[in-house]
Amino acid sequence: MSGFSTARQKMVDGQVRTSDVTDRRVLDAMLTVPREAFVPAARQALAYLDLDLDVSEGGAKRFLIKPALTGKLLQAAEIGEGDSVLVVGCATGYLAALTAKLARQVAATECDSALAAKAKDAFTALGLANATCRAAACPEGEPSAAPYDVIVLNGAAEVMPEALLGQLKEGGRLVGVSAESRPPRAMIVTRTHGEFGHRALFDAAAPVLPGLERAAAFVF
Q1: pLDDT 10s digits, 111-120
Q2: Distance of CA 5 to the CA centre of its chain
Q3: What pLDDT digit, counting tens, does each position of 198-217 carry?
Q4: Which of 94, 80, 177, 87 lies closest to 128 in space, CA to CA?
Q5: Which family does it belong to (predicted)?
Q6: Which residues make Cβ contacts (< 8 Å) with residue 130, sequence separation at least 6?
Q7: Is the peptide bond before 184 cis (omega within 30 degrees of 0)?
Q8: CA dihedral (178, 180, 185, 189) positive or negative
Q9: Contact (Cβ atoms closer than 8 angstroms) between residue 147 and residue 136
Q10: Using an 8 Å Cβ cutoff, are 178 and 199 in contact?
């Protein structure tokens, strides 16, 4: 085994399984998708550590969220093999690549166009023909491929992303971290008969996605 494949096994066994991720398909995806392929060369040694990994190169800071949280969100999303999924704020595309192992079709967005290009290149290199990535602001989503069975946020939102909720199918669900209140929590929002039901899943922290920050309070 290479050093990276050993590290990948240790990540799954030591960080993901121990966080109550038991879904076999999620675990298999995390064992097969090389996280180091989504990390700048200078930081590849950090690829499997238990941290939100900064993958930005000069622009606004962009992250791959912690492996344990990645696995827990994917498990909560209950992605089926026939599902169409949107991954928002994918950075270099790791979460979207995992999702492509679980779903029929994955559309991903990333606000940094250089990182979106890296994500596309990584999907091609890994043979993930069912995943695409487009440079777009996080709150916009990807209306051209909507509606979606599942939307996954690669980070936290301090405001409710209304435009994204509008891109859910009937019965569809959005998972991500809600930082609207303290402590932040992973949430699932389900669309039923045009109404949205919100359910807190577990306490979780993640970097806030660009464009989903709370508006700064006005000060005289």
Answers
A1: 999 999 999 9
A2: 22
A3: 999 999 999 999 999 987 66
A4: 94
A5: Belongs to the methyltransferase superfamily. L-isoaspartyl/D-aspartyl protein methyltransferase family.
A6: 100, 103, 104, 105, 106
A7: no
A8: negative
A9: no
A10: no
